[in-house]
Specification:
heterodimer, A: 112 residues, mainly beta, six-stranded mixed beta sheet, four-stranded antiparallel beta sheet, globular, B: mainly beta, 0% helix
Chain lengths: 112, 113
């Protein structure tokens, strides 16, 4: 079945550092890909998405590009802030039943 | 404000209690979901309702009983739970269809004593 694998955390960074969270997927078709973020004490929020190969999703300084050839959707941000401390989830939506499959989540802590 | 409201935010219950979790959305979505989030485990999809019909039930124990009376409301009825059921229970909604993102509530933190 479809699945998502993302890098294990936790990840600890200093403010203004570069952040990359790797995400790879396995799917039989051409899924839509998502990054969700969960801030402390809250539910998940959509951060960005891409629906086809070579699409780039971006939001709040974060970017991810749908790479079909490497089945990847890595999340990047050039200069993180303390407010970016959260858990980040990679997810895919299958084209057949639209079910969303989530990765295990990566905890990111940004220190001032 | 996420558009999806869950109550209560916190719940402590004994193993013999019966309680219900409530979820409400006014986003005009036609699909609603219950997820379980436990520490150090991936998000687990429990139930999916599409147009008020249950379309997914991922081998969830019968001590969890969902109810979707209309497209805006979703309940999770709980009875005779076990301590390992302690977790964050998240409700979400969406337009059904690929590429449609989920909108999550802030969850109910459940502790079973």
């Amino acid at each position: 079945g479809d699945s998502v694998t993302q890098m294990e955390g936790p990840v600890t960074l200093s403010e203004e550092a570069f952040l990359t969270i790797n995400c790879t997927y396995t799917a039989t078709g051409y899924p839509s890909l998502f990054w969700y973020v969960q801030y402390p004490g809250e539910g998940l929020q959509l951060l960005l998405k891409a629906t086809k190969a070579d699409d780039k999703g971006s939001n709040k300084g974060f970017e991810a590009t749908y790479r079909k050839e490497t089945t990847s959707f890595h999340l990047e941000k050039g200069s993180v802030q303390v407010s970016d401390s959260a858990v980040y989830f990679c997810a895919l939506s299958d084209r057949i039943d639209y079910k969303l499959s989530f990765g295990a989540g990566t905890t990111v802590t940004v220190r001032a | 404000e996420t558009g999806v409201t869950q109550t209560p935010r916190h719940l402590v219950m004994g193993m013999t209690n019966k309680k219900s979790l409530k979820c409400e959305q006014h986003l005009g979505h036609n699909a609603m979901y219950w997820y379980k989030q436990s520490a150090k485990k991936p998000l687990e999809l429990m139930f999916v309702y599409s147009l008020e019909e249950r379309v997914e039930n991922n081998s969830v124990p019968s001590r969890f009983s969902p109810e979707c009376p209309n497209s805006s409301h979703l309940f999770l009825h709980l009875h005779t739970l076990q301590p390992e059921d302690s977790a964050l229970y998240l409700c979400a909604s969406s337009h059904e269809g690929q590429g449609s993102p989920l909108h999550f509530g802030n969850g109910t933190r459940l502790t079973v004593t």
